[in-house]
Specification:
Elements (H helix, E strand, L loop, with lengths): L2 H10 L11 H10 L16 E9 L2 E10 L7 E7 L12 H8 L6 E7 L16 H13 L12 E6 H12 L7 E5 L6 H6 L3 H15 L3 H9 L3 H12 L8 H10 L7 H7 L9 H9 L7 E6 L4 H8 L9 E5 L5 H4 L1 H17 L3
Parallel strand pairs: 3-4, 3-5, 5-6, 6-7, 7-8
Antiparallel strand pairs: 1-2, 2-4
Helix pairs in contact: 1-7, 3-15, 4-5, 5-12, 7-8, 7-11, 9-10
């Protein structure tokens, strides 16, 4: 269980707080991940070819969205890839940079251009005090893909979507509704339940507590104090990365922790985490609904699922449920936990590149 979740529940009601002794899962997870080999030497996260801000309008409020583009010398047949970061307390475009550079740098019959976009309220995008939920995030993604002035506007109907965690599931949900029309979808370590709901469920008593915590985090003054306790401190971030974000604790470097800590100090940083932690960003409410999202794409869109060897037990079970599921074209497994694209980027890039080659070759 993430330390932030444990602290949050303890704050809301000591009677439902869970001690570390009551969490054999977490101890077992540590034992398991230490058996994972160190990642192969990865390429440095080179600087993007271009960075910029795209203005998203939500309820007549302009929100500046950060994006960056990665490309090499372009040929005649170039496919566009939209990479969207995992939605989390410390979400950032940085998690996809090495993957993007690896894919666009390969030579072949097809060329690739990758655009990585930060979610509103996260990363280097503006963080206004919106009432964030899964529908808001879906609306953002739909506008991003369909607006004529967006950074992915000139994809010519061949836009690949690559997302991690909740981001992948929100993209699949939008595609199933026909709101977006991706040519290929890759879901990397896909999830659908936030930290508190995945551990404590969605009973009416817990939903009341989630609402209390959410209101506290969004409140002036006390909200920042609570956010500093739960999220915005280096010890908490390091604990989360070592316990369930990365598979190998030795790969959690001081530079990673420092860069993520800096993100938590940006103006408005607490608003999306308040929604994510308490389940408001969950795109579905059950495994059955989760599977149905992918089933909606059967026969229409090639879908790759990239599972991980050392994901937390509950998240791993949801990924495994997609193996052989309707709407899933290919299921693969790579080293890692909840952020394999950052911890083992070359392994993820290799699987993505192979699937893209297979998908586009089949159309010729």
């Amino acid at each position: 269980m993430p330390p932030a979740a444990a602290a949050a529940v303890a704050f809301l009601s000591p009677s439902v707080a869970v001690s570390r002794r009551a969490l054999p899962l977490r101890r077992a997870r540590h034992l398991a991940v230490r058996a994972v080999a160190s990642p192969p030497a990865s390429k440095p996260a080179s600087k993007p070819s271009k960075t910029g801000k795209w203005q998203w309008k939500f309820e007549n409020q302009p929100v500046n969205i950060y994006y960056e583009e990665h490309e090499q010398e372009t040929g005649e047949d170039v496919k566009n890839i939209l990479m969207i970061p995992t939605i989390s307390d410390v979400s950032t475009v940085k998690e996809w940079r090495v993957v993007a550079k690896d894919i666009v740098g390969r030579k072949g019959e097809l060329g690739y251009r990758a655009t990585i976009v930060d979610w509103p309220g996260l990363g280097y995008s503006d963080r206004p005090s919106l009432n964030y939920n899964a529908d808001v995030m879906e609306s953002f993604l739909v506008q991003l893909m369909n607006s004529p002035n967006s950074p992915v506007a000139n994809a010519d109907g061949e836009l690949v979507i690559v997302g991690g965690g909740h981001a992948a599931t929100i993209a699949v949900r939008a595609a199933g509704k026909g709101l977006i029309k991706p040519s290929v979808v890759a879901a990397v370590a896909p999830t659908w339940a936030g930290p508190l709901p995945i551990v404590f469920g969605r009973g009416s008593d817990m939903e009341t507590r989630y609402g209390l915590l959410r209101g506290t985090l969004r409140a002036p003054a006390i909200g920042w104090m609570m956010y500093n306790v739960l999220v915005s401190n280096e010890k908490s971030i390091q604990s989360q990365y070592k316990s369930h974000v990365y598979a190998n604790p030795e790969n959690v470097t001081p530079d990673i922790i420092e860069s993520r800590y800096e993100l938590t100090k940006r103006k408005g940083a607490r608003f999306v985490p308040a929604a994510f932690l308490t389940g408001l960003l969950d795109p579905v409410q059950s495994r059955e609904e989760f599977l149905q999202l992918f089933a909606e794409l059967e026969g229409d869109v090639p879908v790759l699922i990239v599972s991980t060897l050392n994901a937390p037990k509950r998240s791993k079970a949801e990924m495994e449920a997609l193996k052989g599921a309707k709407g899933v074209t290919k299921f693969v497994e790579v080293p890692g936990a909840l952020l394999p694209q950052e911890e083992y980027p070359l392994a993820v890039a290799e699987e993505l590149y192979k699937f893209l080659h297979e998908s586009f070759s089949a159309r010729r």
